[in-house]
Specification:
Elements: H1 2-33, H2 42-54, H3 56-73
Length: about 70
């Protein structure tokens, strides 16, 4: 039973991190990854939110790679 509680707690932590990341990513990071994401409507951002929350490790890695590439260019 302790194992199940641990797995559920890990899931909740992953979900919490995903929600926080998705909010930041949709607000700031989406436009950095894709130029066509600049000026998207709130409806489109709402559609991106669940995917950003679920796939946050992948998107974080891409966002960091883009940020590093831009910082070395300047």
């Amino acid at each position: 039973m302790e194992t199940i509680k641990f797995i559920v707690n890990v899931f909740y932590l992953y979900l919490l991190a995903g929600v926080i990341f998705a909010a930041l990513f949709i607000w700031r990071g989406a436009a950095k990854l894709d130029e066509s994401a600049k000026g998207i409507s709130w409806k489109t951002r709402a559609l991106l939110f669940p995917a950003g929350a679920a796939l946050w490790p992948v998107l974080l890695r891409k966002w960091l790679q883009i940020s590093r590439a831009h910082s070395t260019d300047e």
